[in-house]
């Protein structure tokens, strides 16, 4: 599918809005970002306000290319340039020491800064046109499901964000990997580049961190995050059909996320799925079924099936969660294998989406 390309006037309007300290919706290869001038404290404050994001949560600063590293980070080490040469542009964020050119509003008050060079051509062109770095956290309300299409961004913000550059669906579909390279390299958040890729490239094991601390904070570290409105439960694929057969006492509509599902799987079930058109072109197959329950309203099932590969699940996960909410599901069951089969990034997002919500 060919992605749309903003015209010259749209790029110019976006650059003018950024120069005025305002925000724009920006596609990247990971998710859509809520972009503002990373050197303008007022623009940064607007990002936190519009997202309803706590101001002590650092933002990722997007650069046009690796040559900007020396201007916006302090004494970047040799490992940063090696990683940039291999993985930029792309879904890898590096945590380095902040230079004075980056306001503390962008770093949550920390002396570190998270930087990356996005691979999406629309983001790359706007960065080159604007000539200054852009802070661009995901363009959604804090803690909720990240957007992977321009339509998702418009649904969340409407007229509060007048300019959203449309670059089509995001190719990766989950956020960037955040790698702290100020000391021994360690992953703060799994994402579009795996720990195995990083370890193989660097020739040393790359670790992870536990719970965030006052001095170690990064986007996406909260236990509950990326959450749809409906409660989500992770179950083993082998348990799914038995769980449905048991029924639900209170739910009227259940969303099912089943990677690799085919219509042949239903032959032994006491109900039939009907395939329904997917007009969004996201790579999700859609099915529905209706289970009659004597003396009670029927139970409706809404099933979304990406392909079985980890990249298929990454690319479609957020779109699926948003579709379940749009369909009015009372709960969501994600039938996904554990133990690393889908990769750390997908398992991290699903675990956090299923975590108890803060009260």
Order of helices and strands: HEEHEHHEEHEHEEHEEHEEEEHEH
As a whole number of angstroms, the C-alpha radius of gyration is 21 Å
From the N-terminal CA to the C-terminal CA, the straight-line distance is 42 Å
Helix content: 25-40%
Shape: globular
Mean pLDDT: 91
Q: How much beta, percentage-wise?
A: 15-25%
Could you tell me the number of beta strands?
15
Structural class of the helices, strands and pairings?
A: alpha/beta
Characterization of this structure:
It contains ten helices and 15 strands. It has helices spanning 8-19, 41-51, 69-72, 78-87, 121-130, 150-157, 195-202, 240-246, 310-326, 344-354; strands at 24-26, 33-37, 60-62, 92-97, 112-116, 134-135, 177-180, 186-189, 207-208, 232-235, 253-257, 274-276, 285-293, 296-305, 331-335. The strands form two sheets. A nine-stranded mixed beta sheet has the order 1-2-6-3-5-4-7-8-9, with helices on both faces. Strands 10-15-11-14-13-12 form a six-stranded mixed beta sheet, covered by helices on one side. β13 and β14 (296-305) form a beta hairpin.
Characteristic terms for this protein:
alpha/beta, 359 residues, 2 domains, DHBP synthase, 10 helices, 6-stranded mixed β-sheet
């Amino acid at each position: 599918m060919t992605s749309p390309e903003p015209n010259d006037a749209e790029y110019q309007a976006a650059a003018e809005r950024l120069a005025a300290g305002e925000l724009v919706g920006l596609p990247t290869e990971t998710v859509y970002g809520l972009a503002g001038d990373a050197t303008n404290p007022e623009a940064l404050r607007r990002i936190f306000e519009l997202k309803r994001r706590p101001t002590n949560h650092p933002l990722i600063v997007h650069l046009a290319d690796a040559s900007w590293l020396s201007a916006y980070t302090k004494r970047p080490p040799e490992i940063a340039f090696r990683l940039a040469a291999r993985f930029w542009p792309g879904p890898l964020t590096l945590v380095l020491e902040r230079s004075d050119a980056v306001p503390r509003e962008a770093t949550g008050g920390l002396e570190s800064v998270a930087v990356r060079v996005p691979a999406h051509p629309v983001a790359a062109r706007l960065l080159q046109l604007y000539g200054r770095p852009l802070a661009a956290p995901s363009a959604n309300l804090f803690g909720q499901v990240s957007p992977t299409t321009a339509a998702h961004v418009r649904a969340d913000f409407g007229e509060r964000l007048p300019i959203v550059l449309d670059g089509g669906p995001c190719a990766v579909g989950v956020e960037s990997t955040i790698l702290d390279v100020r000391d021994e390299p360690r992953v703060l958040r799994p994402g579009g580049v795996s720990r195995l890729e990083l370890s193989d490239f660097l020739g040393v094991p790359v670790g992870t961190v536990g719970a965030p601390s006052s001095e170690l904070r990064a986007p996406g570290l909260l236990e509950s995050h990326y959450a749809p409105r409906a409660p989500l439960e992770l179950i083993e694929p082998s348990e799914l059909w038995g769980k449905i057969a048991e029924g639900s006492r209170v739910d009227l509509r259940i969303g099912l996320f089943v990677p690799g599902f085919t219509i042949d799987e239903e032959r032994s079930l006491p109900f039939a799925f009907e395939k329904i058109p997917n007009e969004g072109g996201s790579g999700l197959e859609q099915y529905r079924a209706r289970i009659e329950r004597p003396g009670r309203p029927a139970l409706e099932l809404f099933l979304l099936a990406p392909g079985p590969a980890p990249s298929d699940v990454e690319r479609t996960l957020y779109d699926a969660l948003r579709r379940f909410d749009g369909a009015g599901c009372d709960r969501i069951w994600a039938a996904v294998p554990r133990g690393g089969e889908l990769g750390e990034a997908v398992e991290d997002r699903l675990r956090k989406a299923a975590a108890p919500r803060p009260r």
